[in-house]
Amino acid sequence: MSPLGAAVLLGVLVALAAAEPTEYFREEFRDGGIQTSQDARFYALSARFEPFSNRGKTLVLQFTVKHEQNIDCGGGYVKLFPAALEQADMHGDSEYNIMFGPDICGPGTKKVHVIFNYKGKNVLINKDIRCKDDEFTHLYTLIVRPDNTYEVKIDNSRVESGGLEDDWDFLPPKKIKDPAAKKPDDWDERAKIDDPEDSKPEDWDKPEHIPDPDAKKPEDWDEEMDGEWEPPVIQNPEYKGEWRPRQIDNPDYKGKWVHPEIENPEYQPDPDLYAYDSFGVLGLDLWQVKSGTIFDNFLLTDDEKLAEEVGNETWGATKEAERKMKEQQDEEQRRQQDEEDKKRKEEEDDDGDEEGDEDEEDEDDGGDKDDEAGAALKDEL
Ligand SMILES: *[C@@H]1O[C@H](CO)[C@@H](O)[C@H](O)[C@H]1NC(C)=O
Hints:
Layout: E1 34-35, E2 41-52, E3 59-67, E4 73-75, E5 78-81, E6 98-105, E7 109-118, E8 121-124, E9 137-144, E10 149-154, E11 157-163, H1 164-167, E12 175-177, E13 192-194, E14 209-211, H2 223-226, E15 233-235, E16 247-249, E17 261-263, E18 279-288, E19 293-301, H3 304-353, H4 367-380
Antiparallel strand pairs: 1-19, 2-18, 3-9, 3-19, 4-6, 5-6, 5-18, 6-7, 7-8, 9-10, 10-11, 12-17, 13-16, 14-15
The structure holds 2-acetamido-2-deoxy-beta-D-glucopyranose (NAG).
Residues 156, 305, 308-309, 312, 316 line the site of 2-acetamido-2-deoxy-beta-D-glucopyranose.
């Protein structure tokens, strides 16, 4: 966990207990985080802090997530709970105020959740915010302001922003269709009509199929034996299909009827959409199919600039080194793989030279297993 020193906010800095250092920073940065360790598990971990309300203040929630395991399915979000939460009893249905952060499951779900509890209901953002799905550490920041605007940042860059009322369905719509209005019966919505002047030509109707005029009764046709000869039927070239009158502009066309709207009597503006009376617990309440995600650098503050600074000092300070180290690791892995491939190829070539030497044992790993498998096979035979 990176030292944040005096970086405190509504007086609150949340730091969950540091666990194992991350793979990349064990030595270099003495950095660590909380890492999920077993596949297909629910995780629940929370930390309590001095309760506060964000009324009249900006709220910034920030943390880093690193899907070191090349995740295919798992949550990477945090929840902010009211102080009343019983930590020991925290579970998926525990009522929270805000849920924020990345969630990945297959290629279909790669999004940043921003969910607010409003009057007991969880309300999801109407916009799609894509999360990062690589193996690097990323900084996730949610800013909620007392003017009911918000901002979501990833790696200290804005990825979404706007008004709470616009981007969540907290409130019923401002306008609704006027229930008293109704399309007049004589409202003509047909742009084109049949031309009343047009009529079907006398010679229009022709059969679709006719006997082939070129067909001839075969010489050896025997009426007694073969029955009466009939020529084969062909498509009539003069057949014109079903007649349809010409289309003309409808002189009575009034355009598409638009249902008039009225102010929704159910709509009540709420200037306090952003406000919660009590925040008291930060929690990780997650399901992970593939574990290995590292959470770190949790920060709650009322100071946007401070959060950005802290982001720079934590995620910002390590991102380059992290990339380099990953490149080195990948390079090292490639090198090892190449070496193994080469060795295997050499061995195969040797085997080729000593053809007929069937007793030769594979001395590499898996030799025992092969023996077992061989024994089992023999038993079966
Ligand atoms: C954070 O880092 C970025 C990029 O170096 C810089 O532009 C920005 O001013 C920094 N923010 C703060 C608050 O220090």
